[in-house]
Design brief:
It is an enzyme of class 2 (transferase). With 474 residues, the protein is of the alpha+beta class. 32% of the residues lie in helices and 21% in strands.
Length: 474
């Protein structure tokens, strides 16, 4: 569906002596937690109805490559790779940048319908795969990030990003994309490359600020070594190969749903009425995120029509930068998120007060994070429990596992390279039953919800439940 023009390698700019410096960074326990997860893939769609092949090749792509080169100079280690060489005695993988390392940039053209691909309607998940590059991963080496720039003649262009989860969390990837976009836009407006990034886009690269008194990095590394999951190399405990979930199947479909601010307010009112406990409600964490997550999870479980005893696992992903003791800079670049799974059965979710039940579970988990130290001995079993749940789901397919990718706080629609803000931002690597959240493009305080489900019938069922549930609120 996409004709590839070239696969280029973009290296950090040579305009500074820093680009010739070899650098390495350790993986923290936050990084190791995500070491074997599938790369996170994103698509940024930009409408440009006058975009010709000539302008694309002579102006747009060179501008993007040039600004990417300068962005990499600020984020130097991430032009390198994750490595764990057999001939060295390194106890764990690390990030290594050496001079002339760079990132892969694929340049392509497609005559598919840009507006279909960037729309909200139900469509096959596999349709997005042609516009996101693969991330090379071997036993001893893994690329950190790769890009694809695709022209849709007289419609627009897309930038596809594939990032290794052991290097970037969502906040870091978004920060990098915005830094790249900032440099690109400034170079067009002022006809020169900015030497300094704004403070909020300048990465803090010091990994020593993340303390690990309980040796969680090696505990998590051992958890992955012992995991019995598809794709992992059971004969080589040092392998960097990734877990291959069953999630990406030919019939899976995706769609985007919207919750406006009024919808969220009415859902919150419904939760409050179902709980009917004023004192408890006052202590709850009923944010827009919690209310939206609870409603989407309820719709997913209803659409799947599970047995009452089916296990349901839903995960709270927490940004820990401000929760560490002492807190670390908001611009810390790397992983600083942790997943906190919640286990329950389908029966209480499917009950009359299922929405309030889920909201209560989410609130309690988040409130617990506010009270406890993030780096605690209790985290020793965090990854092991999640891997066991994945092993069960992988072997028997009984559990319903739901996670949330992205965050409305990332403000992805502010990623403007100089040709306007994106028409659509999509996390194309979502697995079956998972969702993404982003702020509404129009800035009305609502959310965009990206959904992937197993097949068209299941998505139609979800759509009906979602729409009808909101109608009942009015």
């Amino acid at each position: 569906m996409a004709k590839i023009f070239e696969v280029a390698r973009v290296t950090p700019s040579t305009h500074s002596p820093e680009s010739a410096t070899e650098l390495s960074l350790p993986l923290t326990f936050f990084d190791v937690y995500w070491l074997k997860f599938h790369p996170v893939e994103r698509l940024f769609f930009y409408q440009h109805t006058d975009l010709t092949l000539t302008f694309f090749n002579s102006v747009l792509v060179p501008k993007l490559k040039q600004s990417l080169s300068h962005a990499l100079l600020h984020y130097l280690p991430f032009a390198g790779s994750i490595t764990w060489p057999e001939d060295q005695h390194a106890p764990k993988p690390f990030i290594l940048y050496t001079p002339n390392d760079g990132v892969s940039v694929t340049v392509a053209e497609s005559y598919q319908d840009f507006f279909h691909l960037s729309g909200n309607q139900i469509r096959k998940t596999i349709e997005s795969s042609a516009y996101v590059p693969e991330l090379p991963v071997s036993d001893s080496k893994a690329a950190t990030i790769a890009f694809q720039i695709t022209l849709f003649p007289n419609q627009g262009f897309a930038i596809g990003v594939s990032s290794h989860h052991a290097i970037f969390d969502g906040k870091s990837v978004t920060m990098f994309m915005k830094a790249w976009a900032y440099i690109c836009k400034q170079s067009q407006e002022n006809d020169k490359i900015p030497c300094v990034l704004p403070e909020e886009l300048t990465p803090f690269l010091d990994r020593t600020v993340v303390r690990d008194p309980y040796g969680l990095d090696m505990i998590y590394l051992n958890n992955w070594s012992e995991a019995k999951l598809p794709g992992l190399n059971a004969n080589n405990h040092r392998s960097l190969k990734l877990y291959q979930a069953k999630e990406f199947v030919a019939n899976s479909v995706r769609a985007t749903f919207k919750l406006n601010l009024e919808d969220i307010k009415k859902l919150k009112q419904k939760i409050v009425s179902q709980l009917n406990d004023p004192d408890y409600i006052k202590s709850m964490h009923l944010s827009r995120f919690v209310v939206s997550y609870a409603y989407i999870l309820l719709c997913i479980v209803k659409a799947r029509k599970p047995e009452k005893g089916t296990m349901v696992i839903f995960v709270v992903i927490s940004d820990c930068r401000s929760r560490l003791d002492p807190p670390i800079p908001a611009s810390y670049f790397g992983n600083c998120v942790n997943g906190y799974p919640i286990f329950t059965q389908a029966e209480p979710i499917l009950s009359e007060n299922g929405l309030a039940f889920v909201a209560k579970k989410l609130s309690e988990r988040i409130k617990g994070l506010e009270k406890e130290a993030v780096i605690s001995e209790g985290l020793k079993n965090n990854l092991a429990g999640y891997i066991k749940a994945m092993e069960r789901e992988s072997s028997v397919g009984e559990a319903i596992a739901v996670g949330v990718a992205g965050s409305p706080k990332f403000e992805v629609y502010g990623t403007d390279f100089g040709w306007g803000k994106p028409d659509k931002v999509e996390i194309s690597s979502l697995g079956n039953g998972s969702m993404s959240m982003a702020e509404s493009r129009d800035g009305n305080g609502g959310f965009e919800i990206g959904m992937v489900l197993r097949n068209h019938d299941e998505m139609e069922m979800f759509d009906s439940i979602f729409v009808d549930g909101l109608k009942d609120l009015h």
